[in-house]
Specification:
This protein is mainly alpha-helical. The protein has 14 helices and three strands. The protein is flat.
Length: 288
């Protein structure tokens, strides 16, 4: 039996097991709070713009964050962070990395169950055809995400709010933020309402068929005196009854954009739509 004095210092009291556990819990809680950016100082330092962005984006994605700082970070482009030179403030790049991995998992699972007869190589090609920068940017555009991404003044003036790369990265960052905040179930619900809803209808590209984008693109190229657009089949994936086409459009001999669809006609329309949007965006930048 140990002597009672063991472990005691003069004038001090040995903490009991319960108090030690309490201290450990408090330390762990503080560590988790710091990692999540949930410290009271950070909450107090949220700007009015950040709070409004959180409110608006939560409405679009139909998910309420337990820790809104995840969403605030997801909306911060690196240009905004660098221009502010604030210590301890992070851009959305790490969340975009995480969101990309989570997106691959959820979409891969969806395609795996939807196409049970496909081989591994076909599934990989199908996923890359359906989920790419332009497809994700289209989803971001549908939820008006470009309005709420925080950019530097110069990036915003150069058309950053319409840039495919910035929009698609923000979309993936939000997926990463939702995953950290609530796990896979809310991510699946979010994707089921957005990207996977489009895929489940076997219409990988959501083209507004009320407008003839091929005619609009032709009108533009003829007006610029650069001839007619040329459409080339880039790939055709799957059996005849559920084939998915990828069409690339060339203007003046240069590749401009790719579109996907369950028919060549729809894929050409999607390619033309993206080309028109890209040309319009470039024109807006030239005017600024």
């Amino acid at each position: 039996m140990f002597p009672k004095s063991l472990g005691r210092a003069s004038g001090t009291t040995v903490p009991n097991r319960h108090s030690i556990l309490q201290k450990l819990r408090r330390a762990a809680s503080a560590l988790v709070s710091g990692l999540k950016g949930g410290a009271s100082g950070q909450v107090a330092n949220r700007t009015a713009l950040e709070r409004e962005n959180v409110r608006q984006v939560q409405k679009y994605i139909d998910y309420r964050f337990k820790n809104p700082d995840y969403l605030i970070t997801a909306l911060k482009h690196r240009s905004y962070v660098y221009s502010r030179e604030q210590s301890g403030v992070h851009s959305n790049e790490r969340l975009e990395f995480l969101g990309d991995a989570v997106l691959d998992l959820v979409v891969g699972e969806f395609i795996y169950h939807k196409y049970p007869g496909r081989r591994e190589g076909q599934l990989t090609q199908l996923r890359s055809t359906l989920v790419n920068r332009k497809a994700l940017a289209r989803q971001a555009r549908a939820m008006k995400l470009g309005r709420y991404v925080l950019l530097s003044t110069s990036e915003a003036r150069s058309g950053g709010r319409f840039r495919h790369s910035i929009l698609s990265d923000a979309y993936e960052s939000i997926i990463g933020a939702i995953y950290l905040d609530g796990g896979l179930p809310p991510v699946r619900r979010f994707l089921n309402r957005t990207l996977l809803q489009e895929l489940s209808t076997e219409r990988p590209s959501e083209v507004d068929h009320s407008r003839n984008y091929k005619s609009a693109l032709l009108e533009y190229t003829q007006g610029e005196g650069i001839g007619q657009p040329e459409y080339r089949v880039d790939s055709a994936v799957g059996p005849d009854h559920e084939k998915i086409f990828t069409i690339e459009v060339f203007v003046a001999g240069n590749p401009v954009s790719k579109g996907t669809g369950t028919s060549k006609k729809n894929a050409e329309q999607d390619a033309a739509r993206q080309a028109v949007e890209q040309l319009q965006s470039n024109r807006a930048v030239d005017r600024s």
